[in-house]
TrEMBL record:
The protein, known as: Enterochelin esterase
Organism expressing this protein natively: Chryseobacterium gambrini
CDD domains according to UniProt: E_set_Esterase_N
This protein's UniProt keywords: Signal
Coiled coil: none
SUPFAM superfamilies, per database record: alpha/beta-Hydrolases (SSF53474)
N-terminal signal peptide: 1-22
Keyword Cytoplasm: no
InterPro entries: AB_hydrolase_fold (IPR029058), Esterase-like (IPR000801), Ig-like_fold (IPR013783), Mycobacterial_A85_antigen (IPR050583)
């Protein structure tokens, strides 16, 4: 057989917490493009006195279209990454445009969005060595600035609701780590958590939540990451810990890396879930991609395991006439392009499974996986975790 037939395999097991439902789980084209025919919110720069830092600090505040001082609004605090400041989201993420468009479609609860500078130090600009120890430490110090200075300022200056169920915290990268650290550490202050592509500043799960059941007090835990993001382990380890302790949450794995294409999509999805009744049993209705299987070779992205045990393959076999996966039963793949075949199996039981590719009826091992002796011959293998299995950690 021509070896070009056997090339790349993409394998996915779907089931972190979602099923294949894509209509409103991925931002549509144009979601971040300004629409001149609709009403627009307003972005203001504000200054507040920070006793924590000992100086006056800046933040941006977005008020929704139709904002009225006589109403009371919930608040989303939206945090930036290690190389940004209070303008990073505004300049690169277009939150005002994304939210304006969602308001026009009737998909959002009216809210105020605060874009602070998460680097709590006197010279809080993202200049020089952004990885310098004092600048990194300033992201930790921001917890005090947020709780003791910024939130009181917002609640004094703006018509906002002051209960924990009316406060959400979300952020990207370094801000995603801050979000997990601050929200899990102050469940009496926040009820909504959105951690996008969390960075290494994220505390280890047992330090984030020494008493995991405390997380049940949160209305929503939304953890997301691009499937090609090298920081995936920091998001996954939190999700694994929550899953092991039976804490309902969304673990949204999406196509992409560590960039605003991913984070804008995250904001689009997360914002629609805020300050509304939450049906945690529906957390499984999110489209996800998988994480690479432990038996993959050469750092290949596939096979991938997803929590419900479904398996999707994507095989590069340009000369094949028929491609099947032999995993418990034979599943035919559909040709997607001139080179690739795709398909999804039924959920598999939690255990070790042998599998083979069938290329025009010939059984071959998956070149992206380690090889094992099983099925009376050499075959590929995948270990699907079962509930309570520490493998997930």
């Amino acid at each position: 057989m021509n070896r070009s037939i056997i090339l790349t395999v993409t394998f996915m097991l779907s089931g972190v917490l979602f099923s294949a439902q894509t209509s409103d789980k991925q931002a549509p084209q144009g979601f971040d493009v300004e629409n001149p025919t609709i009403s627009h919110g307003k972005i203001d720069t504000v200054q507040y006195v920070s006793k924590t830092v000992g100086t006056t600090r800046k933040a941006l505040i977005y008020t929704a279209p139709g904002f009225k001082k006589g109403n009371k609004y919930p608040v989303l605090y939206l945090l930036h990454g290690i190389g940004g400041d209070e303008k990073e989201w505004f300049n690169q993420g277009k939150p005002n445009v994304i939210l304006d468009n969602l308001y026009a479609q009737g998909k959002l609860q009216p809210m105020i969005v605060v874009l602070p500078n998460g680097r709590a130090m006197k010279n809080d600009r993202a200049t020089g060595n952004i990885m310098a120890p004092d600048k990194v430490e300033a992201f930790t110090t921001f917890e005090k600035d947020l709780l003791n200075d910024l939130i009181p300022f917002v609640e004094k200056k703006y018509p906002v609701k002051k209960d924990r169920e009316s406060r959400a915290l979300a952020g990207l990268s370094m801000g995603g780590g801050q979000t997990q650290n601050f929200a899990f550490g102050n469940i009496d202050k926040f009820a909504w958590l959105g951690a996008f592509s969390s960075a290494p500043n994220t505390k280890e799960p047992d330090k984030l939540l020494p008493n995991p059941q405390d997380a049940l007090k949160l209305k929503l835990i939304f953890i997301s990451c691009g499937d090609a993001d090298g920081l995936m382990p920091f998001s996954k380890r939190t999700s694994d810990y929550l899953k092991k302790n039976k804490i309902p949450h969304i673990f949204y794995i999406e196509p992409g890396g560590h960039d605003f294409k991913v984070w804008k999509n995250d904001l689009y999805i997360f914002s629609q879930l805020l300050f509304k009744p939450v049906n945690k049993s529906q957390f499984s209705n999110f489209t996800v991609l998988g994480t690479p299987e432990a038996t993959n070779i050469r750092n290949t992205q596939y096979p991938k395991i997803l929590p419900d045990g479904r398996v999707m393959f994507k095989i590069k076999a340009p000369e094949a006439q028929k491609v099947q996966i032999d995993l418990e039963k034979k599943d035919a793949l559909k040709k997607e392009s001139d080179s690739f075949w795709i398909g999804t199996t039924d959920p598999q039981s939690g255990s070790f499974h042998y599998y083979s590719l069938l290329i025009d009826g010939v059984a071959v091992a998956d070149p992206s996986s380690e090889t094992f002796y099983g099925m009376g011959r050499y075959a590929s293998g995948i270990d699907i975790p079962f509930e309570g299995d520490d493998f997930m950690l």
